[in-house]
Amino acid sequence: MTELHEILYCSLLAPDQPTEIVGQIVSRARASNATEGITGLLVFDGMRSCQHFEGPRRQVLGLLNRLEADPRHTEMRVVYEGELLKRPYQRFDMGLAQTEDEAEGEDIAILQQLDGAEALERFLALRPRFDIAG
What we know:
With 134 residues, the chain is of the alpha+beta class. The protein is built from four helices and five strands. Strands 4-1-3-2-5 form a five-stranded mixed sheet, with helices on both faces. Strand 2 (39-44) and strand 3 (48-56) form a beta hairpin. Helix 3 runs antiparallel to helix 4 (116-126).
């Protein structure tokens, strides 16, 4: 059986990028993620994003390398990485939750300052607020 791995990172949209680029990125990522067995959720507040993704270890680490090299976002920081026993995102390849809610934006800003299990727990606690089915 393939070892499952998960990563949660936060970043800022690069200043020269329009906010619409995030939806375009997710749309394109869905096909490649499906091929690689990667599932997850990206939360975007208009400036900050946090993405939690999971899948086979090799593919997840490959995606992380591509994300780190992507100039469309800055200040990328992995706040959690680890092995995974069961996928929390089973019904979609890559979900996108965009929010303009000020409180959720503050939650994302706080999340960017956390590390480890605390960061992951805070992100997972945000999921019920979004209109997603994962």
